[in-house]
Design brief:
Order of helices and strands of chain A: HEEHEEHEEEHEEHEEEHEHHEEEEEE
Radius of gyration of chain A: 21 Å
Number of helices of chain B: 4
Number of strands of chain A: 19
Distance between the termini of chain A: 42 Å
CATH class of chain B: Mainly Beta
Number of helices of chain A: 8
CATH topology of the domain at 10-53 and 141-230 in chain A: Gyrase A, domain 2
Helix content of chain B: 10-25%
Order of helices and strands of chain B: EEEHEEEEEHHEH
Number of domains of chain B: 1
Radius of gyration of chain B: 13 Å
CATH architecture of the domain at 10-53 and 141-230 in chain A: 2-Layer Sandwich
Strand order of the largest sheet of chain A: 10-11-12-9-3-13
CATH topology of chain B: OB fold (Dihydrolipoamide Acetyltransferase, E2P)
Structural class of chain A: alpha+beta
Oligomer: heterodimer
CATH class of the domain at 10-53 and 141-230 in chain A: Alpha Beta
Largest sheet of chain B: 6 strands, antiparallel
CATH superfamily of chain B: RNA polymerase II/Efflux pump adaptor protein, barrel-sandwich hybrid domain
Largest interface: A-B, 18 and 14 residues
Strand content of chain B: 35-45%
């Protein structure tokens, strides 16, 4: 695993007995000795600390950076108030999704957080904004931690009291021991919590300070996946990709009126001619699935309308066991005419298992709005 | 005395039957087990046939019949509470099989050989 990159918390992972795996070119903890199931439950009950330093952090500077980013992302970037964050997607000319990202307005610049696997590609994509006078700066000297769960706010406020005032999707700078931390009240678990960007050299210290608290435990990528799936949050490369449109991916909500047909800044992003007409009337869209019984259905499992025969109607894009749900759960893009509550069938090991189509999330998020 | 297969099963001879489970090493590799599908009692199986499905939080895997014979009992309590495999892999037996050709575990690994296999 010589070519893998290591985060500033690598030594901490090793000391704490993490099982390290290659992930998007990084050597990352998939679980700690607590195990995926208990790490998941711990995060829902108390607070979990995640190393997400592998994710790409990119700064955009320039007077018209928000306008420029709107040429690549069908979100209301111009309308993000200073100190707030929004979700968005990079789209392609075919209307597919190149990556999803978080966009924070930090007053004099935009801070983007993108998926690790897409970071290089996103950076190259963003460079086209340089011709508009925008500076594109990859952030390479900072670690990123996520602290998630009902006890996250109290735990973090013990170190830096001002975070208690933040609401869901707020973004602000916090001074801590002479360092500037970039904090957002957001995450990828369905829980209240924070993402904390800090200089790499202090990341282990901040992590250890948090882990020294009774309610905080280190959590690996395994539980991160089951937490986000329970919360109905899409994972790039699985629930969306360059061949999936925002409407199909169930992400049309992130395209506000102002960017839609008839809006003040309608279109003007790649694939708008495909994406905008499809909003609200897509032939297929992402749905939740609850398999009967305890057997999970995983990514790639083929779905059928009937218990026998017929053509496939979709494929599971994410699936697994939901520890808080106490049973299996999955997501898939299905024909829109299948109503919630319908029973469809998942073919696995040569047999078809009944599966109920349900709305997501599977477990209700507890964001601090 | 326990014997072991290359598929990380433990085998224990009891009378004219063999009791089968998975090793602690296997349970640790699998991670938290959330679903186990056991074969039907009375089913006749061939050595190498996939007869148990185990799903952990990470992935699905199969357990094969270590020997040809008839399934005489399955641990249905384990199917109801599959986490028992992680709690105590040696206590969490999966099924009992009556070998078609009599009970002999000579061809299987002893503990020393198994420990060498898993390093």
């Amino acid at each position: 695993m010589n070519d893998l990159r290591r985060t500033p918390l690598y030594d901490l992972h090793v000391v704490r007995g993490a099982k390290l795996v290659p992930f998007a070119g990084w050597e990352m903890p998939v679980q700690y000795p607590m195990g995926v199931l208990n790490e998941h439950l711990h995060t829902r009950a108390k607070a979990g600390l995640f190393d997400v330093s592998h994710m790409g952090q990119i700064i955009l500077r320039g007077e018209r950076a928000a306008e420029a980013l709107e040429t690549l992302v069908p979100a209301d970037v111009v309308g993000i108030p200073a100190g707030r964050q929004r979700y968005g997607m990079f789209t392609n000319e075919r209307g597919g999704i190149l990556d999803d990202l978080m966009i924070a307005n930090k007053g004099d610049h935009l801070l983007l957080v993108v998926n690790a696997a897409c970071a290089e590609q996103d950076l190259a994509h963003l460079r086209q904004l340089e011709s508009r006078g925008i500076t594109v700066e990859p952030v390479t000297d900072r670690g990123l931690l996520a602290l998630q769960g009902p006890a996250a706010a109290a735990a973090l406020a013990r170190l830096m009291p001002e975070v208690a005032e933040m609401r869901f999707m707020d973004a602000r700078d916090v001074e801590f021991q002479g360092e500037t931390l970039w904090i957002t009240r957001s995450g990828y678990t369905g829980e209240d919590g924070f993402e904390i960007s800090m200089p790499a050299r202090v990341a282990p210290m901040v992590a250890e300070r948090l882990l020294a608290m009774d309610e905080v435990a280190p959590i690996g990528l395994g539980a991160r996946d089951s937490l986000r799936l329970e919360a109905g949050l899409s994972l790039y490369g699985h629930d969306m990709d360059p061949d999936t449109t925002p409407a199909e991916a169930g992400l049309g909500w992130s395209i506000p009126k102002v960017r839609r047909t008839g809006g003040e800044r309608a279109g003007g992003f790649p694939g708008a001619d495909v994406i905008l007409p499809e909003l609200g009337n897509a032939a297929r869209s992402r749905r939740g699935l609850r398999p009967e019984g305890r057997a999970p259905i995983r990514e790639g499992v083929v779905l059928f309308a009937d218990a026998a025969g017929g053509e496939p109607i979709g494929t599971v894009s994410s699936g697994g066991f939901g520890p808080s749900l106490g049973g299996p759960m999955a997501m898939a893009i299905l024909p829109a005419d299948i109503p919630d509550g319908a029973t469809i069938h998942a073919e696995q090991r040569g047999r078809r298992q009944p599966v109920t189509v349900v709305p997501t999330p599977f477990v209700k998020p507890t964001y601090k709005r | 005395m326990l014997k072991y297969t290359e598929d990380h099963e433990w085998l224990r001879a009891e009378g004219d039957e063999i009791v089968v489970g998975i090793t602690r090493h296997a349970s640790e590799q699998l991670g938290d087990v959330v679903f186990i599908e056991l074969p039907e009692e009375g089913r006749e199986v061939e050595a190498g046939e996939e007869i148990v499905v185990i799903e952990s939080v990470k992935a699905a895997s199969d357990i094969t019949a270590p020997i040809s014979g008839t399934i005489t009992a399955v641990n249905s309590a384990l199917a109801d509470a599959p986490g028992g495999v992680n709690d105590d892999a040696l206590a969490a037996w999966f099924f009992r099989i009556k070998p078609a050709d009599g009970v002999s575990l000579d061809g299987f690994m002893d503990e020393a050989a198994y420990n060498e296999l898993i390093g």
